[in-house]
Every structure is written in structure tokens, then in C-alpha cells.
Amino acid sequence: MVKDLLVFDMDGVLVDVSDSYRETIQQTLLHFTGKEVTRQQIQDYKNQGGYNDDWVLSKRLIEDAGADVDFETIVAKFQSLFHGNGEDGLMNRERWIPGPGLLEELAETNTLAIFTGRFRWEAEVTLRKFNAPPFVVVGVDDVKNPKPAPDGLVQLRARFPQGVMRYLGDTVDDARSAAAAGVPFIGIAPGNTPDRPRLVELLRAEGAIEVIENVNELVLREQYAG
Ligand SMILES: [Mg+2]
């Protein structure tokens, strides 16, 4: 049997990062500027596209707050808040979204892959932590051009040329990457997204064939069950 190829974005799709990455952005800004940014404001930047990389977004917020800090210094602070000593970092506030058995069921008819803006090792730490089934992972360090460029999806298609391919993501940059690769895109607009209807509208406008709230809705749909 030829398996289909189901590619997931990681953050916001497989992992709820509202209290990890997004909190790290807020704390990084606070550290360098004493200023605060709301989750809604962070979402507004994400909705613009071009801010898939949280380091780049942090730099932008710090600049907007009138501070001049070099990129390496920002990244170092961000990473130290996120990872901590390995046990006390904000990364530990990540939550795994797929319910028991979901991925195993999808894996019966699909090769499972991830195309993420994380480094591959950072994605693999999280997969191990949550005892995820096997995924083919393409990280930001595996591609020449990060999202919204299509490189990661093109690479996966070349490695698994057979079957139907789909990409699931939660941002405008994910949708643009899929469109540039010619891959059907399924939008995820998590229930806790600030101004969720706006994100649904944006993902549709960027070509999503449908927008769902949560990956756990996938098994309810016959087309994914093979
Ligand atoms: Mg994401």
C-alpha cells in the first residue's frame, strides 16, 4: 500500500506553545525594555507573515519599544529563558495536543512528517518528551530558506514522492509555504488564539482547503482515514 504524506507544522499544531514560546517572547521583551506585549499583539505580528521566527519577532518588538540590542544578545536571552537549566525553562510549559492513539491511527495510512521553524534537535527533544511515534523531521537547519519558502515541503516530497501530500499549519507563513510548494494546506486555528475568527479568515484567504481547530478533528474525517 502506498502511504500518503501528512506533514505537520509543530508549534500551534502538535504542541501548544502559548505558555512556552509566546511567553518567552513576552519575557524577552520585558527583560530588555521593561515593556509588555500582549498575546493579541504577538498574534497580530504572526498574522502579518514574516514573523514565523520568534527570535526575529523578538528583535522587532524590542526595536519598536525603542531599544537597540544586537540579535545575538537577544537570541542568547531568549534561549536561556526557553531552555533554562534543562528543567526549569519555559519549554516545560509546552502541551502535547494529539490525543491518545490519534497519530498511530493516522500512521496506518500516512507517512508522518514535520516541517518546523525549530532546529531539528529542538523538535526531537519535544517528540521524545511526549513519546511521539516516529516522524520524519525537517528543521530550519535542514533547509536553505525558512518558511514562508517552500524548501522543506519540496524536500519531503522528493523523499516521499508517492501518495497524496498535505500540510497542516497555524500561520500565514505555513500557508504561503504550502502554496509555493503546490501542496494542499489545512489550516489550524487553535481555540485559544486571540481573535480566532481573524486567523480563520486569513488562513482561508491564503488558500487553506479547510480550517479546523485541532488536529484531533482529523480522525473524524474519512478522507484522512485512507
Ligand atoms: Mg506554528
Keywords:
2 domains, 226 residues, alpha/beta, Rossmann fold, two-stranded antiparallel sheet, globular, 9 helices, binds magnesium ion, 6-stranded parallel sheet
Helicity level, as a percent range? 40-55%
Mean pLDDT: 94
List SSEs in N-to-C order: EEHHHHEHEHEHEHEHE
Annotated CATH architecture of the largest domain? 3-Layer(aba) Sandwich
Which parts are unreliable, with pLDDT below 50 for 5 consecutive residues or more? none
| Outline type | globular
Please give the alpha-carbon distance between the first and last residues: 10 Å
The total number of structural domains is: 2
Helix/strand/pairing category: alpha/beta
CATH topology of the largest domain: Rossmann fold
What is the topology?
Blueprint: E1 4-8, E2 15-16, H1 21-33, H2 39-48, H3 54-64, H4 71-83, E3 95-96, H5 102-107, E4 110-115, H6 120-129, E5 136-138, H7 151-159, E6 165-169, H8 172-181, E7 185-188, H9 196-205, E8 210-212
Parallel strand pairs: 1-4, 1-6, 4-5, 6-7, 7-8
Antiparallel strand pairs: 2-3
Helix pairs in contact: 1-3, 1-4, 3-4
Bound molecules: magnesium ion.
Magnesium ion binds at residues 9, 11-13, 169-171.
Account of the protein in words:
- The protein is of the alpha/beta class and 226 residues long.
- It has two domains: 4-16 and 94-224, Rossmann fold (3-Layer(aba) Sandwich), CATH 3.40.50.1000; 21-92.
- 41% of the residues lie in helices and 13% in strands.
- The chain has helices at residues 21-33, 39-48, 54-64, 71-83, 102-107, 120-129, 151-159, 172-181, 196-205; strands at residues 4-8, 15-16, 95-96, 110-115, 136-138, 165-169, 185-188, 210-212.
- Strand 4 (110-115), helix 6 and strand 5 form a beta-alpha-beta unit.
- Helix 1 runs parallel beside helix 3 (54-64) and helix 1 (21-33) packs across helix 4.
- It starts with a strand and ends in a 14-residue tail after the last strand.
- The mean pLDDT is 94.
- Bound molecules: magnesium ion.
- Magnesium ion binds next to loops.
